[in-house]
Amino acid sequence: MRRTRRALLRGGGATVAAAAVLGLVVAAAAAVPVLWPHDAMTTTFGSILEAPSLAHPMGTDGVGRDVLARFGEGARISLLIGLVAVVTGALAGLLIGLTSGLAGGAVDEVLMRVMDALMAFPTLMLTMAVTISLGSGLPSATAGVTIGTIPWFARVARSETLRITALPMVEAAVALGMGRARLIRAHVLPHMVSVLVVQATATYGSVILSVAALGFLGLGARVPTPEWGAMITEGMEPALTGAWWVAFFPGLGMLIVVTCTSVLSDRIRDVLDPRGSFSGVKGVT
């Protein structure tokens, strides 16, 4: 762990800066809804579309709600949905990939053809289709983006399972009579953790964008829930009258999170995979 931390720090100022900025966004998501005196849902019709000031550092929206309060609450929603989707998608994809790689034959063929069918659709289109079928709202959006991540994790898990089980040490363990369950615990999963971590960090930023896109299209968070994509939609009309701040700050938040996770993902991959063997890892687009 200490060696990995030192390796990350040796990656240069960009990695440290990305981690620090992302930490600030996470801190804002945790602290603003609790410590900031303004509520994200409270309307003040005497303070409609006020420009950024000391009282309202990010201004107010079209019904007088504090944008900073809504930004912090939106960060909490977006980051949490991203975490739930990535963790759930990784676990489901790991189970499918392990089953496919270890079983082989018809089971492998059927599971991978299903994954290929899902991956044939652009991820956002697949996410939208799932969300629409379940009904708009944050739970449906979460389910949609989660399903969109599963094929990527499943493909990576299967390829790693095939690679690991072909290693001489694993073949020797099987020859000595090691059972399948113990083989998975002792050899397959420990050697697969690093590639799954890289895939998860590469996927996280894309999930944040997908959630925001669903909110922007009205398929995700419902008004007045302060989710970043929905906030951008609400800020489009005020922006035409010069109130740029309503849509600008949630858009800036998404840009920061996606950029920082992309930088960290590249650096984590360099640290965990210096030889470039994680050829199957990629972001969800």
TrEMBL record:
<keyword id="KW-1003">Cell membrane</keyword>
<dbReference type="GO" id="GO:0055085">
    <property type="term" value="P:transmembrane transport"/>
</dbReference>
<dbReference type="GO" id="GO:0005886">
    <property type="term" value="C:plasma membrane"/>
</dbReference>
<keyword id="KW-1133">Transmembrane helix</keyword>
<protein>
    <submittedName>
        <fullName>ABC transporter permease</fullName>
    </submittedName>
</protein>
<dbReference type="Pfam" id="PF00528">
    <property type="entry name" value="BPD_transp_1"/>
</dbReference>
<keyword id="KW-0812">Transmembrane</keyword>
<feature type="transmembrane region" description="Helical">
    <location>
        <begin position="243"/>
        <end position="265"/>
    </location>
</feature>
<feature type="transmembrane region" description="Helical">
    <location>
        <begin position="77"/>
        <end position="98"/>
    </location>
</feature>
<dbReference type="InterPro" id="IPR050366">
    <property type="entry name" value="BP-dependent_transpt_permease"/>
</dbReference>
<feature type="domain" description="ABC transmembrane type-1">
    <location>
        <begin position="75"/>
        <end position="265"/>
    </location>
</feature>
<comment type="similarity">
    <text>Belongs to the binding-protein-dependent transport system permease family.</text>
</comment>
<feature type="transmembrane region" description="Helical">
    <location>
        <begin position="110"/>
        <end position="132"/>
    </location>
</feature>
<dbReference type="InterPro" id="IPR035906">
    <property type="entry name" value="MetI-like_sf"/>
</dbReference>
<keyword id="KW-0813">Transport</keyword>
<dbReference type="InterPro" id="IPR006311">
    <property type="entry name" value="TAT_signal"/>
</dbReference>
<keyword id="KW-0472">Membrane</keyword>
<dbReference type="InterPro" id="IPR000515">
    <property type="entry name" value="MetI-like"/>
</dbReference>
<feature type="transmembrane region" description="Helical">
    <location>
        <begin position="12"/>
        <end position="36"/>
    </location>
</feature>
<feature type="transmembrane region" description="Helical">
    <location>
        <begin position="193"/>
        <end position="223"/>
    </location>
</feature>
